[in-house]
Design brief:
Belongs to the short-chain dehydrogenases/reductases (SDR) family. Keywords: Oxidoreductase. This is 3-oxoacyl-[acyl-carrier-protein] reductase. The chain has 9 helices and 7 strands, in the order βαβαβαβαβααβαααβ. The chain has 248 residues and is an alpha/beta fold. It has one domain: NAD(P)-binding Rossmann-like Domain (Rossmann fold, 3-Layer(aba) Sandwich). The protein has a 7-stranded parallel beta sheet with strand order 3-2-1-4-5-6-7, with helices on both faces. Strand 4, helix 4 and strand 5 form a beta-alpha-beta unit. Helix 1 crosses helix 9, helix 3 runs parallel beside helix 4 and helix 4 packs parallel to helix 6. The termini are far apart. Bound molecules: acetoacetyl-coenzyme A (CAA).
Length: 248
């Protein structure tokens, strides 16, 4: 039986930024469904959320690179909780390396996980949103999709591509009560940036005008804002949250 609370599906929900987004949306009263990749990690993650009093967060473990799995995942969410009214595309990976050293697999893995997944999820929820005349889609891109980054031809291409999808889908859905926006975080203190060699990472931090990394919570509060019913005039936009590192 469908739950009365509006449903928010957060892909990459168990990750560094995703966790903060799930918790922030849960605090706003959404029934949150967190996407995950690693079942063992997800089980523990859910137990942690429940221990913190979040009883309106659930899990959905579809392979986002597989369209049919996404459709099946959304069908299951609809049956359990109701149609998805907020979709946050937060799943993403890095496979950094300079072009001269990058294997084709590094390119395809990142494009599949970070960009093709966004088509798969948006396509899976859009018909419900159109039918209900309401929806909020927030695509979590990156500062590096805006400015490029040494060692990230794959990641920057995927993240820039996300915003092309955002602007196009925003135009297609503008008269249907649906907004589609991109949020471009800078360097946020999560496990993902800990993979950057320490020397390189320190140089990046020094280059951020506010002289620190962002926090996942600083991204989550902007997601809550864009997901709000009252934010209906914001569509096709990109919001940079990067401590002043890139002002485009
Ligand atoms: N600008 C200019 N030159 C650079 C450079 C830079 N930013 N970084 C490295 N170089 C130079 C090195 O000094 C070296 O020069 P020499 O050959 O003259 O000695 C050369 O480039 C190294 O080239 P290699 O192909 O050998 O590179 P590598 O194998 O040593 O590693 C790298 C390159 C993997 C890209 C490494 O520099 C790296 O991890 N950089 C960080 C990339 C990054 O910022 N990733 C972001 C991850 S977080 C994220 O993506 C989240 C988000 O959205 C913000």
């Amino acid at each position: 039986m469908a739950n009365a609370a509006p449903v928010a599906w957060v892909t990459g929900g168990t990750g560094g930024i995703g966790s903060a987004i799930c918790r922030a949306l849960a605090k706003e009263g959404y029934q949150v469904v967190a996407g995950y990749h690693n079942p063992e990690k997800a089980k523990q993650w859910l137990a942690d959320q429940q221990a913190d009093g979040f009883d309106n967060i659930a899990l959905s473990g579809v392979d986002l690179t597989n369209y049919d799995e996404c459709v099946a995942g959304v069908t299951e969410i609809r049956e359990k909780y109701g149609p998805v009214s907020v979709l946050v595309n937060c799943a993403g990976i890095t496979r950094d390396g300079t072009m001269k050293k990058m294997a084709p697999e590094q390119w395809h893995e990142v494009i599949d996980t970070n960009l093709n997944s966004v088509f798969n999820t948006c396509r899976s929820v859009i018909e419900d949103m159109l039918e209900h005349g309401y929806g909020r889609i927030v695509n979590i891109s990156s500062i590096n999709g805006r400015k490029g980054q040494f060692g990230q031809v794959n990641y920057a291409a995927a993240k820039a591509g996300m915003h092309g999808l955002t602007m196009s889908l925003a135009q297609e859905t503008a008269t249907k009560g649906i907004t589609v926006n991109t949020l471009s975080p800078g360097y946020i203190a999560t496990d993902m940036i800990m993979k950057i060699p320490e020397k390189v990472r320190e140089a990046i931090r020094e280059g951020i005008p506010v002289k620190r990394y962002g926090t996942p919570e600083e991204i989550a509060r902007a997601v809550v804002f864009l997901a709000d019913k009252e934010s209906g005039f914001i569509t096709g936009a990109n919001l940079d949250i990067n401590g002043g590192q890139f002002m485009g």
